[in-house]
Amino acid sequence: MKQAALIVVLSLATAAQPSQAQFEFGMTGPEVSHEIAIETDAVHADATFRGAARFSLSDGWHVNAHTPLEEFLIPTVLRLEETPEFVLEGVAYPEHRLYTFDFSPDQPLAVYGENFSIGFIVRVAASVAPGEYALSGMLRYQACNDNMCAPPRDLAFTVPVTVEEESAPLKQTAPRWFLDVNWEAAAAPVETSPLGNGAAAPETPETGDAWRATAAQFRVAGRLDGFANTNGFLAFLEAVEKGEDAGAPSAGGRWWWMALVVLGGGLLLNLTPCVLPLIPINVAIIGAGARAGSRRRGFALGGAYGLGIAVVYGGLGLVVVVGMSAAFGALNSTAWFNAAIAALFVLLALAMFDIVEIDFSKYQAKLGMRGNSNGRFLIALGMGAVSALLAGACVAPVVIYTILQAQDLYSQGHVFALALPFGLGAGMALPWPFLGAGLSLLPKPGKWMTRVKQAFGVFILGFALYYGHLAYTLARPAAQPAAGDDVWGHSLEQGLEQALEEQRPVIIDFWATWCKNCSVMDRATLRDERVLSRLENHVKIKYQAEALSEAPVKDVVAYFHVLGLPTFIILEPKE
Question: CATH assignment of 210-250+484-573, given 3.40.50.1820, 3.10.450.50, 3.40.630.30, 3.40.30.10?
Answer without folding.
Answer: 3.40.30.10
